[in-house]
Amino acid sequence: MMSASEKPTHQRKPAHNTPLTETAGDLDAILPHFAPLTRIAVDTEADSLHCYFEKLCLIQISVPGHDFLIDPLAGYDLSPLWKSWHGKELIFHGADYDLRLLRRTGCPMPARIFDTMIAARITGLPEFSYAALMDRYFQIKIAKASQKANWARRPLSPQMIEYAVGDTHHLAAIRDILDAELDRLGRRMWFEQLCERAIRAAENDKEIDPDQTWRVPGSGHLRDRAAAIFRELWKWRDEEARRADRPTFHILHTDALVDAAVKFDAGERVEIRHLRGSRAHKFFEAAECGRSLPQSEWPKFERKPRLRPTREQLDRIEALKKIRDKAANEHKLDPSLIAPKATLEGLAFRPEETLPRLLPWQRELLGF
What residue ranges do the domains of the chain occupy? Predict the structure, then answer.
């Protein structure tokens, strides 16, 4: 039960003039607002669309009666903020990205989160984006103009400030609506298990095979020498993006890389009009490097042998699918929330490996 001081406000729009917390003194001044609370609404903004090295650019926080914008780029110590959150429930919408971004900035993993996206899904809502929830509960349409803004730029425009504050201003109210629905449906334990799994998943970065990073969408049809040329062009683009700290697509789009690899392989003329100077020189050097590689050094495309399921396994998948779909229909849930297709196949082919990955409520609905 929340205290009176924690009941969310319901003004239709947040104010435009929320100032940035830009100094250690500014931060110290707002921390007392958090002390008596048990939960805090949080969101973040990064600059991944504008830089190669993604960084945390803004932290939005809303508590009853106040909205705050914390500026991580101002250079002051954020550890007092992390300490002020200790032991509190942090409210997010789609927590995975925010948790990973905050962790890389030095924030310890929270003990508890309330992810309104998970809550919306587990209560059976067909549309669970933040914009959909804002429209559903408050009839507020979220303008998308600032979604792709450069959040590393200062000063922030009034439009960006309104957008940023709007991401958390109603979050606690959405949380309370969904919290009541979780109790009504008796699904609190399901929800808590999913939130705990989200915290654990965000504790570590996903491992990426360095030999596979160049195999990007749109290049999968390239083979042999064309693939070797593309790999070298991808490395060139990645190095240029790192050096300039710009997104790779600002250097050259993938479809242009693919087209260039095909033409270089065929001995055709390649012209990239906006490449100049040393960048253009290195581009053609990379292409020639790929062209001159011996066949033994061309990328290998080894098809993983597909398991040929036995009739018994196929029957098992179909039986599990029927059980899952029946449970999803009864509980008005997206079937993939109980078990996606890959999980059903894993239960049929490798049950000893797959079953431990399921949450207790998922195992129960599937009959395990």
Answer: 4-201, 224-297, 311-366
